[in-house]
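On clarity, I found the account of how folds are encoded harder to follow than it need be. What matters is that the chain and its backbone geometry are given together, residue for residue. For the editor and my fellow referees, an illustration may be useful. For illustration, here is how one protein appears when written out as sequence plus C-alpha cells:

___
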Amino acid sequence: MRYSLKDEFILAFCRLGVAGLSPKAPGTCGTALACLLAPFLFGPLDYLWRCIILVVLFVLGGFAATRAERLLHQKDPGQVVIDELVGVWLVILPFVKPGFWVISSAFVLFRIFDIIKPWPVSASENWLPNGFGVMIDDVMAGILALPFMGLLYWTGIF
C-alpha cells in the first residue's frame, strides 16, 4: 500500500526508522535502538529537559500510534515501537549521564516488565484511547522497572 509522505513520516517515527520493521521481536529491537541512542540524545541533558522530552514523546507518540493503528489496520501493531523508547528512557531518567551498566540494566528490566505485562501494565492499555493506550502500557512497564533500578543503584552494582 502506498502512503502519503506525511503518513510515511508518521510510520517511520512510530517504527524508530527500521527497528519496528524487524520480523522478529520488533519491540526488543526498538528498545535496543532506544538504548543505543540514549547516551547521545537523552543522557547528556539535564533532568528537566529529559522530563519535557518524555512528555512530548508520549503525546506525539500517542497521536502517531493512533494514526499508525488506522494505517496498518491493527490495534497496537508490533511495528509501533516509539512506546518502547519512552518506556526505557523513563527507566534511565533518574540517572545522570547513564553509562553502559545503567542502560543495559534498564534494557533488561524494561523488557521483562514489557513482555510479562504484570498488573497494572496489562490493565493500563485500556486506560487511555487509541495510540495513547499503546504508549501508557510501556510507561507503566518503565515505572515498575524503576524500583529495581533503584535497588541495583543502592546496592552499588552501578
Remarks:
- Residues 118 and 150 are 19 Å apart (CA to CA).
- The two ends are 47 Å apart (CA to CA).
- The mean pLDDT is 96.
- Helices lie at 5-15, 26-41, 47-72, 82-92, 100-116, 121-124, 130-154.
